[in-house]
Amino acid sequence: MNKIILFSRSGLGFTAAELNDILDALATSGFDWYVNRPFARTFADTIGHKMPDERLYDTISPRLADGAIMLSYGGDGTFLEAVRLAYGYDMPILGINYGHLGFLACTPREKMAAVFAELRAGRYEVQPRTMLHVADEGGNIAEHPYALNEFSIHRIEINMTYTDVFVDGRKLTTYRGDGVLISTPTGSTAYSLSAGGPIVDPMCGCFVIAPIAPHNLTMRPVVIPDTSEITFRVNGRAAYSAASLDNRSFRIPCGSVFTVRKAGKPVFLANLQNISFYDTLRNKMMWGLDGWENAR
Question: What is the secondary structure of 193-250 as a DSSP string?
Fold first, then answer.
């Protein structure tokens, strides 16, 4: 790995000190590097630094991705956009946390020179993470029918949604309520967790189907093998509902049918070796802060 591809969104409130820290770290890193145009404008607008034109990119190409690691600066929403941009290339993505919770972007943003030194020394691991592929019979999803976290169907009107769900052609149930979602293990700490789903180790080979505010209170999340094919058929009184893939949402008519399966390719996440999923889980969920662990 000899190349760093920087990615971020505009409007995230980077300070001058933070941006200068990134520039200083790049200058001493020994890496070839590139930056997307919105992030480059942040440098120009905040500290007056103009990135050279030959360092800018709009899309990822095989040549740009070759031998590269992508660094996503922001929160988990920014990371999901980085995944959408980089998916399909065997290029790991490292999330630098400039957001709040940060299960995907979990590397601290302080001391970027130390992060680059770890990358240069090869002290990081790469994990393949399952992606969802969503086939849409109605053509509502125009592009990139993939999701790292979840695919969801949810109401946009006062009426409940009615969603028939089939697993490998066998009916599971009809979910009545605000909606239903299917989550990857990576997405188990995202929307699925808010809907009452279990926390799943990201290396597990499974999906979680979870109801969203179900009308029937006996409805509970279901864990199924990730080799399954899942069909969602949207019914109900409302003329329209919404379907979401991660942080993208689409208006869908009643009667829409979606088929979800494990995508043919994973996405690759980079982690510095001293940060595990369990470290992130314990810290982000603030487990053990009641003092009992240290009292034993």
Answer: HHTTPPP--TTSSEEEEEEEEESSTT---EEEETT--EEEEEESSSSEEEEEETTEEE
pLDDT tens digit sequence for 34-46: 999 999 999 999 9
pLDDT tens string 143-186: 899 999 999 999 998 899 999 999 999 999 999 999 999 999 99
| Cα(190)–Cα(183) distance, integer angstroms | 9
**Rounded to whole angstroms, how far apart are CA atoms 81 and 123?**
25
Burial of 285 from C-beta contacts in 10 A (0-12 / 13-18 / 19+): middle
pTM of the predicted protein model: 0.90
Question: Please, what's the largest Cα pairwise distance for the chain?
Answer: 61
Mind telling me the catalytic residues?
A: 76
E strand or H helix at 15, and its extent? none
